[in-house]
Amino acid sequence: MLRYALVALIAATVTFGLSILVYKLGVRYRLHPQIRARDVHTRPTPRLGGVAMFGGVIVAFLVASQISFFDIVYAQPGKIWAILAAALVIVAIGVVDDLVDLDWMIKLAGQILAGGLLAWQGVAIVSLPIGGVTVGSAWMSLALTVFAVVLVMNAVNFIDGLDGLVAGVTIIGNGVFFIYSYLVVQQTSPSNYFNLASLISAIAVGVCVGLLPLNGRVSDRRPAKLFMGDSGAYLVGLLMATSAIAVTGQIDPIEFTATFGRSSLIPAFLPILLPVAILVVPFLDFALAVTRRLLAGKSPFSADRKHLHHRLLDMGHSHFHAVLIFYAWTTVVSVGGLLFFIAKPWMWALVFIGVGLVVCSVLTLAPLSRRKAREFAAQSMRYAAEDPEHESASLDPLDEAAGRERERGSVRYEASATAAAEPGLDEEKKP
Fold first, then answer.
1. Do 278 and 330 contact (CB within 8 A), yes or no?
2. How much helix, strand and coil, in percent to the nearest 5, is found in the chain?
3. Is residue 345 part of a domain?
4. Does a structural domain hold residue 34?
5. What are phi and psi of 189, to 5 degrees?
């Protein structure tokens, strides 16, 4: 565990140092795009944080290669080179897209190429924990791997709209996935504490921790100085997808079932369920966005301002609170998924998830409740009888106008009633 912590610390330190350098260069040479209508920030901000993160990934892998405990990971160097090559392709495309908007087909081609590089060197989905099913075809393995990589990268990129959002979600989600991959490999192979999935998760957490001081937001008055951009979001998505894929390649479903028992079905599905649970919010946003755009006759990769984080802001959440809500949802789902593996009985996981979902729902919908309360108070507020002139001040214009109309109607009714009761008055006025 200490070796993983050391690698993560090195990744964080290198990323932080490079982030400062990238930020200064970005400000000096104005390496930032113009503010778009869908953007939340109000001032031009460099978006090349992915370059600093890529530097942290490179150095972390180099340092890990010099630690003897990771020799079993580097026994197949082709996988490491494939991961670094795929990362280079994705970061290069992301940097160009951050500076000048690329056509979505070019970005999709780069993502497919990255997934193909991984599958080519054996970082591929080779088994599914569904009755011990093994992917029997190399082409099917390639297709599943590329699909998973493209899906996760785009899902992560879709939620990259608030300061520190992707970085924080990655730290929480990959931190949980690191614990899972470490424990499951340790229990299925007691002599092996080091594996590729855990190493990738530790590095992903490290680079996000290193970027967060410049990318995050401590309060609503202190916006981010550096965005990770598409290059960083794609890189994070690639690392998350690769770590999940690596687990499927390292765990034998039959051996897993023999170790934990056939009655333990949920832990057997965790190699697939946990990565999905960690990314449930990005996946939801991705699915809604694609459906929304296709129904509108647009490209699924076209941009708009209707993502989940935009909707939270429109509901009345502050920027900082919206980010914290995403963190809370990610924590509940990912930790709940991990509890299915470590809690005995695993029903406690259901209790944790149930309570967490209720709390998160209340926090998410709180602005709507406060808004309704303010509207109700404004409609129902009445002043004391000694100050009747302000009685209608709490009403909206329609209610106020209706009140005046009722008063005028009452006056007309009283006048007509008086005239009917006293006809002599009118007769006296006649010539």
1. yes
2. 75, 0, 25
3. no
4. yes
5. -135, 85
d(CA 243, CA 178): 9
- Enter the tokens of residue 99: 């500076």
Helix (H) or strand (E) holding 133: strand 133-134
Residue 134, strand partner residues: 127
Both tokens of 21, joined, read 């350098």
Residue 382 lies in a domain: no
Long-range contacts, stretch 68-73, CB < 8 angstroms, 24+ apart: 69/3, 69/193, 69/194, 70/3, 70/194, 70/199, 72/192, 72/194, 72/195, 73/194, 73/195, 73/196, 73/199
* 151 domain residue, yes or no: yes
Residue 10 confidence (pLDDT): 97
Contact 172, 205 (CB under 8 A): no
Instruction: Tell me 305's DSSP state.
Output: S
For the chain, the farthest-separated pair of C-alpha atoms sits apart, in whole angstroms, at 122
Span of 17-26, 183-192, 199-208, 400-409 with lowest mean pLDDT: 400-409
- Percent of the chain whose predicted confidence (pLDDT) is above 90: 34
Split into its structural domains, the chain has a count of 1
Q: For residue 36, what are the domain limits? A: 2-303
